[in-house]
Write a structure and sequence with these properties.
Blueprint lengths: L6 H6 L7 H14 L15 H10 L4 E4 L6 H7 L7 E5 L14 H10 L5 E5 L4 E5 L6 H4 L1 E3 L1 H7 L9 E3 L1 H4 L3 E6 L6 H5 L2 H5 L16 E7 L12 H6 L2 E4 L6 H11 L4 H6 E2 L2 H15 L13 H20 L5 E2 L9 H5 L6 H6 L1 H16 L7 H7 L6 H8 L4 E4 L4 H9 L4 H8 L5 H17 L4 E5 L2 E5 L1 H7 L7 E2 L1
Helix pairs in contact: 12-14, 12-15, 14-15, 14-18, 18-23, 22-23
């Protein structure tokens, strides 16, 4: 493609200027008419957030994505770049990416008069038209809007009354592009005030200079709901000037959550080839986030980030890899005991309330894992609660009786495949029960279901489960209660 190199060639080419919002609107219309997805990699928002976002763009609105952490707010803001033209012409050397047909600074207007059609033109790629700033308490008006630069004044021998001494901030430099401020409530109120005129009138003021810069910007803000954060809030006048506020949310289903985790989890290709992750393990990890969002130990106002499941899957893989290396094995299948290794991922992704702090992060992580197992158990095996309520024949009777005779088993994350298999098959009735309800299961699926069955029976209080670090043991629940001699370092779930 031959691009104009000066103003004369640009005019001759028939180029017509359009605002950023017009670009976004026109390119979105093209995507929609062609049936293409302008927001790839965003799952679960197809019937909620995305339609609202598309309508806001068509209306030419500035945006505020309001939602809890880990709800793809910043990702959606970054994807808006796809709706910009691939290249736009700018005055070569302009600090503010000025349109050659409509310069806005004194210096560029002067250059246009002096150079005429010979005014040099360069082309700016859409990837360079995105500016993102994380709002922090130390952000100043000078950072965002600009200030007088005394060094510049000295070097150019200019008076402080000359507009040439101005150093423009991030907002003016983002002219003709998308400007994103993440975590807007963290921005001090007096700094938020500085954005009012830009949003309403498109002009800026710097240290008393009477500037009327017709900035062309698409503003995008992200924020947690005001009553969910103790750090600050969006001032009412600013909120009033942001035309569309779009509420985000967590995935409504495990299937959607799994798509997100599949996309985001960073698993090395060689690990994907040597380590198999069963669908059941994926579901337990995703359910863990669901349980966290409704747990009495977790602060619901803070939310549970979708990053939890991503980091948990990565840790589960690394736990299996660790076992595989230690045992000299070349292949591994993720087990329930591998999920004991995801505790660090859970610890860093949940904010605990007072009751959760009393229990401790590790205990809460194991508690959420247990809740996940219990929620999924009825999909794979008959619920013990239903069996008891309807007085049906108990299919778990032989398993429970074996443990009630004083028997117990221990499973560790380091257990090699042969020992793992022998340990599970040592429990009478365990394999038979799995065979009864899953007759078509392969050997690897059967082993996982046997392990899952033990975890599930402990959650329904038919067995005791003791977890410590990377080890879990199953015992008779009554015997464990009467014994009362557990190690103080062990945790009972």
């Amino acid at each position: 493609m031959n691009r104009a190199k000066n103003l004369g060639e640009l005019i001759q080419s028939g180029y017509r200027s359009q605002t950023v919002k017009e670009e976004l609107r026109n390119n979105l219309l093209r995507f929609l008419k062609q049936g293409e997805n302008p927001f790839p990699g965003i799952f679960g928002y197809e019937h909620t957030v995305i339609p609202q976002l598309e309508r806001a763009i068509l209306a030419g609105h500035n945006l505020n994505f309001l939602g809890l952490r880990g709800q793809a707010k910043t990702r959606m803001a970054r994807l808006l770049v796809n709706l910009l033209d691939e290249y736009i012409p700018v005055i070569e050397g302009s600090e503010l990416n000025e349109d050659p047909l409509h310069p806005i600074t004194e210096s560029s207007i002067k250059r246009m008069k002096e150079e005429g059609n010979a005014l040099p033109v360069s082309w700016l790629h859409r990837s360079e038209r995105y500016t993102e700033k994380l709002a922090t308490p130390d952000v100043s008006v000078a950072d965002l809007i600009g200030d007088i630069d005394p060094i510049k004044a000295a070097n150019l021998k200019l008076s402080f009354s000359d507009s040439g001494v101005i150093h423009y901030g991030l907002v003016p430099r983002a002219n003709r592009g998308i400007f994103v401020i993440n975590e807007l409530p963290d921005l001090q109120s007096r700094i938020q005030v500085a954005l009012l005129n830009i949003l309403q009138e498109g002009d800026i003021q710097i240290r008393g200079f009477k500037l009327r810069l017709a900035l062309d910007l698409q503003f995008v803000f992200t924020a947690n709901p005001e009553d969910y954060t103790h750090r600050g809030s969006i001032i009412t006048p600013l909120k009033d000037r942001i035309e569309s506020q779009i509420l985000t949310h967590y995935p409504h289903s495990i299937e959607t959550s799994r798509k997100i985790t599949d996309q985001e989890a960073r698993i090395r290709p060689e690990l994907k080839e040597s380590i198999e992750i069963p669908e059941l393990i994926k579901d337990v990890i995703e359910q863990l986030a669901v349980e966290g969002r409704r747990s009495e130990f977790v602060d619901a106002k803070s939310g549970v980030s979708a990053r939890l499941t991503v980091m948990a899957r990565e840790l589960a893989f690394s736990t299996a890899e660790w076992r595989m290396i230690r045992n000299g094995e070349t292949h591994a299948i993720l087990r329930m005991t591998d999920l004991l290794g995801i505790v660090p991922a859970v610890n860093g992704k949940v904010e605990l309330v007072y009751e959760g702090d009393r229990e401790g992060p590790a205990k809460v992580a194991h508690h959420l894992l247990g809740k996940s197992v219990k929620a999924l158990f009825p999909k794979l095996f008959p619920s013990p609660d239903r069996i008891k309520r309807k007085k049906e024949t108990n299919p778990y009777k032989s398993i429970i009786e074996w443990f009630s005779e004083g028997n117990s088993i221990e499973l560790t994350a380091l257990l090699d495949q042969k020992s793992f298999t022998e340990t599970l098959y040592s429990v009478p009735g365990l394999a038979t029960c799995v065979q009864t309800f899953h007759p078509g299961a392969s050997e690897s699926e059967r082993l996982l279901l046997m392990e899952f069955l033990l975890f599930g029976l402990s959650e329904f209080s038919l067995l005791s489960r003791f977890s410590e670090q990377d080890e879990v043991s199953f015992r008779d629940i009554l015997g464990s209660m009467l014994d009362g001699n557990e190690d103080e370092n062990e945790s009972v779930y």
